[in-house]
Amino acid sequence: MKEIVVISGKGGTGKTSITASFSVLGGKDLIVADCDVDAADMHLLLEPDFDRDEDFFSGELAEIDQEGCTLCGKCAEVCRFDAIPVVDGRYIVDPLSCEGCGYCARVCPEKVITNHVQKVGNLYVSNIKTGTKMVHAKLGIGNENSGKLVAQVKNEAKALAKDEGKETILVDGSPGVGCPVVSSLSGATFVVLVTEPTVSGLHDLKRVQELVNRFKIKSGCIINKADINPEQSGKIKAFLKEEDITLVAEIPYDENFTKAMTLGKTIVEHDDKLGSLLADAWGSIIKMA
């Protein structure tokens, strides 16, 4: 089974727009997974029906039984995260600050603090407009454990691909080099790096490629908006050559990308010229993967 993961070292490179275009080009032959759970937006272009909705639970949250609390304050004294402020004369757990370590429950003399597994997001399985399925998710505001939610999305996508006899999974990964990106890369057979010709674009491309190298995964690169800074594009191509990374495509800056998004479409559905460029890129990626 091929698992193609599209990532970028920074946000705003056009990663998701390109991945959604590949989803359309791959059509029914793919299972699509949106692993950018902190800021999921593939659904804006692929018209999912949210056929299946599951709560995602991870981590713990402390809760104080106010009726039994004697206001001794020991819980607040030991909390390293300042997650137990006094509000209206009561000790309250701040859910955004609480790390669920359980120390407050241990020191409470009245034993009125308990930890509960918390719901931190939702996982969805949807039918999408290309005639296949997409697994996607939404992490709750301020919640962590995005790496675990990414792993859940990928496991669900793999199970679907196996059940439906699909040979390719296309993954939209998170930007950056953090935990959700590491989780996105686990099990990948090919990585598509999307960058832009800026100083930060090249800097973050180098960081994310270093991560890809640690996983020993083959990679190719797409330079988006390649014509806005030819000098920086040249530096990126020099880096790719040095690292033996295939330059898959150079996509020119075009306002039709934005126009397509406002219509809820991918660029391959809206612009034949750019669509042809991305179709060629997708064909190359499938061969390399």
Can you tell me about this structure?
Strands 3-6-7-2-8-1-9-10-11 form a nine-stranded mixed beta sheet, sandwiched between helices. The protein has a two-stranded antiparallel ribbon with strand order 4-5. Strand 4 and strand 5 (90-91) form a beta hairpin. It has two domains: 2-47 and 128-288, P-loop containing nucleotide triphosphate hydrolases (Rossmann fold, 3-Layer(aba) Sandwich), CATH 3.40.50; 58-119, Alpha-Beta Plaits. The chain has ten helices and eleven strands. It is an alpha/beta fold. It is elongated and about 70 Å long.
Residues in helices, as a percent range: 25-40%
Mean pLDDT: 94
The dominant shape is elongated
Number of domains: 2
Strand order of the largest sheet: 3-6-7-2-8-1-9-10-11
Write the H/E string, N to C: EHEHEHEEHEEHEHEHEHEHH
Q: Strand-residue fraction?
A: 25-35%
CATH-level-4 superfamily name of the largest domain: P-loop containing nucleotide triphosphate hydrolases
From the coordinates shown, what is the CATH architecture of the largest domain?
3-Layer(aba) Sandwich
Q: Please tally the β strands and state the result.
A: 11
Instruction: Supply Rg.
Output: 22 Å
The helix/strand class is alpha/beta
Give the end-to-end Cα distance, rounded to a whole number of Å.
Answer: 10 Å
Q: What name does CATH use for the topology of the largest domain?
A: Rossmann fold
What is the name of the CATH class of the largest domain? Alpha Beta
How would a textbook summarize the main sheet? Answer: 9 strands, mixed
Number of helices: 10
